[in-house]
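Title: Prediction job returns without error message
Component: structure pipeline
Severity: low
Priority: P3
Assignee: unassigned

Description:
Job completed but the reporter wants confirmation the result is attached to the right record. Sequence as submitted:
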Amino acid sequence: MLTRTARNNEVNFDILFYRSPLPMLIFDVDSLRIVDVNDAALEFYGYTVEEFRNMTTRDLRVPQTRKDFDNLAPQFKTEDKIYVDAQHQKKSGEVVDLQIVSYLIEYEDKTYRLGQMHDVTTKVRQARNLEILISIGKSISEELDPKSVLQKVTDATTQLSGAEFGAFFYNLRNEQGEVFRMHTFSGVPPEACKELERFASTFHPTFSQVQLLRIDDVTKGPRFGKNFPHDNLRGQDLCLTSFMSVPVISKSREVVGCLLFGHRLTGVFSEEAEHMVVSVASQAAIALDNATLFEDLLQANKEKEELLRQAQEQNFKKDEFLSIASHELKTPVTSMKGYLQILTRQARKEENSAYATMVDNANRQVDKIVRLVDELLNLSKLESGKMVYNLADFAISEVIEDVITHFVNSRTSHSIRIFGDKSQQVYGDKNRLEQVIVNLIDNAIKYSPKATEVLVGLSQERGYFKLEVRDFGPGIPEEKLSLIFDRFYRGEENSFNTSGLGLGLYISSEIIRSHDGKMGVESEIGKGSNFWFMIPASSGA
């Protein structure tokens, strides 16, 4: 044990203890009672000598660390030199961070312990603040919820500034464009929040003039205690002396919020604290802008989804109407067709050429109605997924022959010339493929009224059967080629000269797609168009 007999040399003791610039105290190792302090300790802690002598070293500890002190106390009797980090509370209530070195000494013929206090509050605060700054910067940059950003910033800046309590008042716009205020609190009991809201309006310059305020003692202001809300700044729930407010400014230089801080002690908020809070406030503004943009995006997506849902609902109703209407039309149109066929035969039997011509004209018009109704029915089946395909192997000649017969019976003015091997085998729905080929040839005839022929080519490419229909009409402008297979699309230059709903090519392309094939077109202005489709050939080909 290192023994120091302080009283043997009163001059040395006076220099080393009483005149030391470091706060020092001597305490009993058994009772922990403080028996003596130096002038620096009196000034540092704010207690008198009599007050110190009625205290133990445990009393200097902040309450939440006294359990750690109790675990350390047994070593005071045995260890000559002890280093410990601690937090002490001054008489004013201020908490300080200390590095304490204590020694065993002989004092007034008894073993005591002498402690030297090294104030490291600034260093600890700076290290803690740096850690907070790094953490909050990363945290809020990844956060997309405005309320969460507000709370994190409030908690962090309250710590950084050394405030007892802090608040973040933030202006948001709701869906109607109205401004309302969102606020978060830190270090404030729930019952004090309304009190804090009460005096927030006092510091209007922060909002209206983009002005930072830092007040060491609000009680010394000329308005204190006279006008609302200064008359209740020291209510039971909230005592305020030191005050600081920092504006939060968006990218557009608009004040979107304000950070408020308070403390019961005077002169708490330093210039350093002000700079740190301003730094976090600028980061918060960016984070809040991002969070607001994200919320706007979510809202836009919700609106888009709602519009899509409404469109789908309307589309469903439209498809349902088309299905019902086309089915309802099918029956009377079929009856009309039957009656016209009877009239045709009767007119020819009676050799009444006038009636025969009129009935033929009526027949052609009914055929148009039948095609339109069939298109509507096919569209309805496609949209509802009810289009049925009966797939089988067959020779393409079976379809080609039926197609030629169809156009011979319709007395077309165009000759249809077939090139290629008509015996090729394909795998598909014969009726649906015939529907596609009829549509392509019918379009070729309609859109080349000044021509006299349509060419149909049959070939095979890499396991695919390819059919091409070539007309010699005016051609299709290049900018219209990408629209040609859209629903209800009809070229403006021909829309008044030809009948139809603009569904034929759309339905045809969907049928080919359902055969795992593809459909396309090439065209040259003044020379005509070439429509084609490809589907897998028969597995035996």
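Comment from assignee: result matches the submitted record. The two ends are 107 Å apart (CA to CA).
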